[in-house]
Amino acid sequence: MSFERTLLGEDQQTKDELSDIQTGARGIGVLNALIGIIGFAGPAVKGNDDRGLINMKPGLFLGLVAVNAGHNLLHIMFGVLGVQASRNAESSYQYMGFCTAFFGLFSAAVWKEVKFDRDIHIIGGVAMNWWANLGHILLSAFSFLTVIQSDSQ
Known about the structure:
This protein is mainly α. Helices cover 55% and strands 9% of the residues. The longest helix has 26 residues. It is globular and about 50 Å long. Pfam families: DUF4383. Keywords: Membrane, Transmembrane, Transmembrane helix. This is DUF4383 domain-containing protein.
């Protein structure tokens, strides 16, 4: 058995290197998981009535972004899916395409009710406001740009 490493050309990757789309999927996955976990931090959520360490109720994270348990759990789920999808390029591509569509369409649907309102709106069990919607628009845009960039290579 040989443990030599084969030299590859500049356009080839070793088995342990991630492609750009895989790196993007992993990054979006980790970011989503962190957003979901941090949203449960009770002391950082304005409107956390019981003043506990874990926030389950609708409130404003850092006084800006609408969060609740449903919103946080969705971000954690998207995070786990992203990290899992980043294991291969095809799954990463599908995950980033799904993030583009889901966050983009969800933001468009939420816009109809929320617009620039900073108050908390519960839409489909998810706490939303202008800042949360802006975050979802940015997630959709980054996912879309990562897919386009990977297609051009």
